[in-house]
Amino acid sequence: MLEGQSSNIAVHTQSQPSETKAPTNEVFISYSRRDKAFVEMLDGAFKRVGQDPWVDWNDIYKGEEWWQAIQRGIESASTFIFVISPDSVTSKVCRDEIEYATHCHKRFLPIVRREGFDPQQVHPQISKHNWIFFRETDDFDHAFQELLQAVNTDIDYIHAHTRLLVRAIEWKRKDYNDSYLLRGSDLKDAEQWLASSINQDLKPTELQNRYIDASQAAKLALYQSRQRAKWIVMVTTVVVNMAIVTLGFYWFYYYLWETTVARIKGEMVQALNATVDGVNGEEFATLTRTPLLAGQTEPTNNALYRSHQEWLYRVHTLVPYANPYSYTWGDQPREILIIGDVLRKIAPEQATTFRQPFTIDQSNSAIYQGLSQLSLTTFVSRDQRGAQFAAYAPIRNSRGVVVGAIGLDVHADYVVSLKQSVRKLMSMAYLIALIWFLGLSALILRVTRPPKEDY
Predict the structure, then answer these.
(1) Regarding beta strands 356-359 and 335-341, do their DSSP bridges make them parallel or antiparallel, or are they unpaired?
(2) In 3D, which of 9, 45, 13 has the Cα closest to residue 30?
(3) Euclidean distance between the first and the last CA atom of the chain, given in angstroms as a whole number
(4) Are 204 and 197 in contact (CB under 8 A)?
(5) 408 pairs with which residues across the strands?
C-alpha cells in the first residue's frame, strides 16, 4: 500500500466469501501504513483471545474491488478501531473509512499510538470519544485489556446491530427484494433489539429502521392475505355448503309435504268411502225430493234428513279435520243442489241451506265429476267453504244407479297447521345446520390462526 493508506480486511482461513456474504469480525482496524508494526502486534493480541480483526495485509482477496472490500469490512465489524497517529489523522483514506463507519453507526474505539498531531485535524467522530493510549511508553498488556473490555461491552447489542446492518445493506443492494426481509424469530429479535436501542449510545441507522419497518409491513401483509384467504375459503365453504343444505332441505321439505298430502288424500279416500257406504241410495234419492215447509231452511222434521245429518256428523267426529256434505243434480246444466251438510251442526254461519243450488265452473269440475266417479282436488287457496283439499264420490242405489254424491272437505286451517308444523321442523333443522357450519368454520379459523407472537 501507499504511505498513508489504511489497511482494512480481516485475516481468514476460510475460502473466498461469496458476493452477498461478507466475513464477520469483532473489530475493523483503520491505521496508517507507518503504524503497521504496531497493528501486527495488536492483531496478534486479538488472535490470542480468539478474535480476528480486519487488517489490510491479507484481507482483500485477489480481484476484489478495493473500496468495496473496505466497505464490507466496516459493515460486518462490530467495532471500528482507529489508530491515531500524525499520519492517520491526515490520511484521506482513513478519513473516508471514518465517514463510512459513521454512516453505518459503528461503535468507535480510538487508540493513540503516536502523538504529535494537530488536534484540529482529528475527525470529529474520533474527537468525541475517549481514547485508549498505546504509546511506546504505555504498558501494552494493560492498554490491550482496557481495549478488550471496551470491545466486549454490550457485545450482544453490537453484534445484533452488525447483523442487522449487513442484512439491511444486502436488502438494499438487491433492490429491496422482499425475499431478503426478516421473518419469524429473526424479526422478533430485531424488534426487541430496536426497543433496547433507546438506552444505547449506538443508535440504529435509517436503513436499519427502514429494513425492520419493511419486514413488519411484509409480515402484516402476509398475515392479512392469509386471513383474507381463510375468510374467502370459509365464506365460500359456508355458502356452498349452505346452498347444498338449502337445496337438500328444500327437496326434503317438498318430499315431506308431498308425503303428508298423499297421507291426507289417502285418509280422505278412506273416510269418503266409509261415508258413502253409510248412505242408503234409495233413502237418499227420496230425501233429495223432500219439500221444505214454509219458513224452513232444512227439513228438520224429516226422519231421513235427521238420520242423514247424524251420519255426516258421526263421520266428522271420526275424522275431525273432514267436513262431509252430500249433493245431487240441479235443474240447470252444471248445477248441483246441496242436500246434507255437517257445517249446519258445527258451523251454521258457514253452512249451506237444504237444496241450495250451485253452478259448477271449470275451476271446480271435480265436484261435478264426483256424481259419476271418485274425484280429488287440491285448492290453491281456500274455496268458498273454507276447504283446501276435497274428495268426491257417487252415491248409488241398490241397482247401482247414481242418485247423488258425497263431498268431503279438509278444512284449510288443518292443512295450514300441517304446513306450519313441517316448516317449523325444517326451519329448526336448517338453523342447526347453519350454526354448525358457522361454528365449524370459526373453529377452523381459530385453530389455523398463527400464534400471537407470529403477527
Answers:
(1) antiparallel
(2) 9
(3) 51
(4) yes
(5) 324, 391
Those residues with Cβ within 8 angstroms of residue 116's Cβ, 6 or more apart along the chain or in another chain: 86
- Give whole-number Cα distances, 331 to 27, 32, 137, 281, in Å: 125, 136, 147, 20
Which DSSP helix (H) or strand (E) runs through 115? Answer: none
How far apart are the C-alpha atoms of 135 and 143, rounded to whole Å? 9
C-alpha dist (Å) from residue 201 to 148, 165, 197, 370 = 18, 16, 8, 106
Q: Distance (Å, rounded) from C-alpha 106 to C-alpha 100?
A: 9
Q: Which residues have a Cβ under 8 Å from the Cβ of 394 and sit 6 or more positions away?
A: 276, 370, 371, 372, 373, 402, 404, 405
Question: Cβ(136)–Cβ(158) under 8 Å?
Answer: no
Cα dihedral 128/130/132/135 (nearest 10): 50
Task: Give the model's pLDDT for residue 379.
Answer: 65
DSSP assignment string, 152-182: HTTHHHHHHHHHHHHHHHHHHHTTT-GGGS-
Strand order in the sheet with 322-329: 356-359, 335-341, 322-329, 402-411, 387-396, 375-378
C-alpha dihedral (418, 423, 428, 434), degrees to nearest 10: 160
Q: Please tell me the distance from the alpha carbon of residue 139 to that of residue 173, in angstroms, as a whole number.
A: 44
Minimum mean pLDDT range among 28-32, 150-154, 301-305? 150-154
- Cα 68 to chain centroid distance, Å, stands at 49
| Burial call 19-33: b when 16+ CB within 10 Å, e when fewer | eeebbbbbbbbbbbb
d(CA 275, CA 294): 31
Cβ-based burial of 266 (10 A; exposed 0-12, middle 13-18, buried ≥19): exposed
Calculate the alpha carbon distances from 349 to 84, 319, 341 in Å: 121, 21, 12
pLDDT digits (tens, 9 = 90+) for 380-432: 556 666 567 888 999 999 999 999 999 998 876 766 677 778 778 878 887 88
- Sequence-distant (6+) residues with CB within 8 A of 254 are none
CA–CA separation, 402 and 16 (whole Å):
116
Q: Which amino acid is at 320?
A: P
Count of CB atoms situated within 10 Å of the CB of 264: 20
DSSP reduced 3-state for 372: coil
CA-wise closest residue to 406 among 310, 341, 333: 341
